[in-house]
């Protein structure tokens, strides 16, 4: 996660986030190139979830709950990066499909063991029949993960680590609630947002990745060019496969 001095102004980042929030709302139908329908259906939900999370963070931040909204930024980044991995890495879409059917089946089995709902056994049978064989997606972070595969400059690893501090109980939770002055300790009801600028940058980056992916899926060359220009202006990536070897990239000639 970059220092504040290295980041574009907050107003510039907010403007781009608002562009991404508003753009998908203007359209209900997408024109898809031949052969892209099933891939689009698997990925559009993750991309639009990024938009909704950005919209939710924007409302919380304006209402004085920016710190509580940071967990939404983490989720937005996770959705955007996962979608990019599935779309851009060779075999990614197959692995996403396997993960989806496997997770459905595993959840149904768990509920069957822990629920008295009489409809659950039928779901177990249904999802077992639909479960695909093969490797699912890698874990999101850590060794041999989605992040380690796509992160060629440390941005994803560092950002996700910092964002995780607000998603789980941590030292940050303790310090946010206390004011310490020598021997005097008082409780602070409203935490200080120490990472406000970085949050806007991280959220804008997630929006960029999702917006570019939609444009790439729908083959909108003008929108892809506009997003590339904006990404260069905002000093952020629009796609994450640049550090992969050509044999791992689905679109090495793009």
In short:
It is built from 10 helices and 2 strands, in the order ααααααααββαα.
Describe this structure in words.
Helices cover 61% and strands 3% of the residues. The chain has 254 residues and is mainly α. The protein has a two-stranded antiparallel ribbon. α1 packs parallel to α9 (196-217) and α2 packs antiparallel against α3. The mean pLDDT is 92.
Spatial order of strands in the largest sheet:
1-2
Structural class, from secondary structure content? mainly alpha
Shape: globular
Number of helices: 10
The unreliable regions are none
Beta-strand residue percentage? under 5%
**C-alpha Rg, in Å?**
20 Å
Distance linking N and C termini:
28 Å
- Strand and helix order: HHHHHHHHEEHH
Number of strands: 2
Mean pLDDT, to the nearest integer, reads 92
| Main sheet summary | 2 strands, antiparallel
Helix coverage percent: 55-70%
Number of domains: 1
How is this fold's topology laid out?
Layout: H1 10-22, H2 37-62, H3 66-88, H4 92-114, H5 120-130, H6 146-150, H7 155-167, H8 171-176, E1 178-181, E2 184-187, H9 196-217, H10 221-234
Antiparallel strand pairs: 1-2
Helix pairs in contact: 1-2, 1-9, 2-3, 2-9, 3-4, 3-7, 3-9, 4-5, 9-10
Main traits of this protein?
mainly alpha
């Amino acid at each position: 996660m970059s220092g504040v001095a290295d980041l574009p102004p907050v107003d510039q980042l907010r403007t781009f986030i608002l562009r991404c929030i508003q753009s998908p709302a203007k359209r209900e139908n997408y024109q898809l190139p031949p052969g892209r329908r099933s891939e689009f259906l698997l990925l559009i939900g993750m991309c639009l979830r990024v938009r909704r999370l950005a919209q939710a963070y924007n409302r919380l931040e304006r209402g004085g709950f920016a710190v509580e909204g940071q967990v939404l930024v983490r989720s937005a980044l996770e959705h955007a990066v996962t979608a990019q991995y599935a779309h851009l890495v060779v075999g990614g879409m197959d692995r996403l499909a396997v993960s989806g059917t496997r997770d459905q089946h595993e959840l149904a089995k768990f509920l069957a063991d822990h629920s008295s709902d009489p409809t659950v056994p039928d779901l177990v049978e249904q999802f077992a029949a639909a479960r695909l064989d093969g490797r699912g997606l890698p874990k999101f972070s850590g060794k041999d993960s989605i992040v380690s595969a796509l992160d060629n400059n440390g941005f994803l690893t560092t950002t996700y680590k910092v964002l995780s501090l607000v998603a789980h109980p941590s030292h940050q939770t303790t310090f946010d609630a206390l004011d310490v002055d020598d021997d005097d300790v008082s409780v602070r009801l409203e935490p200080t947002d120490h990472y406000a600028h970085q949050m806007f940058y991280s959220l804008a980056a997630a929006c960029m990745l999702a917006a570019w992916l939609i444009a790439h899926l729908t083959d909108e060359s003008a929108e892809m060019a506009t997003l590339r220009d904006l990404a260069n202006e905002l000093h952020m990536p629009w796609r994450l496969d640049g550090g992969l070897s050509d044999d791992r990239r689905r679109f090495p000639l793009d």
